[in-house]
Amino acid sequence: xxxxxxxxxxxxxxxxxxxxxxxxxxxxxxxxxxxxxxxxxxxxxxxxxxxxxxxxxxxxxxxxxxxxxxxxxxxxxxxxxxxxxxxxxxxxxxxxxxxxxxxxxxxxxxxxxxxxxxxxxxxxxxxxxxxxxxxxxxxxxxxxxxxxxxxxxxxxxxxxxxxxxxxxxxxxxxxxxxxxxxxxxxxxxxxxxxxxxxxxxxxxxxxxxxxxxxxxxxxxxxxxxxxxxxxxxxxxxxxxxxxxxxxxxxxxxxxxxxxxxxxxxxxxxxxxxxxxxxxxxxxxxxxxxxxxxxxxxxxxxxxxxxxxxxxxxxxxxxxxxxxxxxxxxxxxxxxxxxxxxxxxxxxxxxxxxxxxxxxxxxxxxxxxxxxxxxxxx
Length: 377
Ligand code: GLY
Prior knowledge:
- This protein is α/β, with parallel strands linked by helices.
- The protein is built from eight helices and 20 strands.
- The strands form three sheets. Strands 1, 2, 8, 9, 10, 11, 18, 19 and 20 form a nine-stranded mixed beta sheet that branches.
């Protein structure tokens, strides 16, 4: 078995690409397997919210807190990460560090946002409940029916499609070998790991990192499974909405040029790529409840994506036996987590240094084996 690479990364989404970029400074010879159109990365379907204040509650009581802190640390890396990527590649990733407003229209929703504000504050974050009038001063396009809002000034956003363009360019510049194929099988032996692609080609590396999405076939389907999300984009006057708005039933992410991404549904276990018209209609209705001008906004496109869900809503990061590392299951937070996940895994793989944050996300927390296709010989 002749080794061709030091590290093989399986997965061409934001996690695999960020890790490849982080690893190049070690001088390692890296192969990046990207299944491309066979398995489009969840990243291309994402809205790009960097929102630990809103996106940590899906993890159960044990992991909600570590997930929040990991997300908050990742968020703190984002301004420099975006600036460095931009300087390296000339691609503007439309990073916006201008906060998120979560809206409430009913008493129950106000109560729920108030509890959320208390939780974020108790975890050391910045979140405050403001009244509807204050929210409308910040975003005049909000509905006059807005009763209250949770203002999370630290939350941010980025454009995931621009981010993919930037990361692909960055990785290409750094001489990572890009192999545009789906990996069908991984065999781990005493001398290395061989990755066999769908076309039958075999590549051998010292170590492998599984960083594919929900349907890569390389992770056990009980532990990493698809959570399908439909979304759409509409067009409004550029600048009419400036911040991420999270209303009941939909979130709205204003991007460059007046594009507003409206997302997203959640359907666990669905692997099809059909966009459901009824789901899109419901998202539009919820969006117009939050920002009435959106009722008349022209639709630019609609799409679906498959988030990589896990049973406890937290990612799977770390070693899974000899030579095999996992960077899986980022569910709703892949874009947010990318800079921290990449830095922590690179340190683990290259130096054996384990960041404390990785403990909570260790693959060993699952009793069943996480990998489906890593055969140890
Ligand atoms: N992070 C938002 C979503 O997954 O829909």
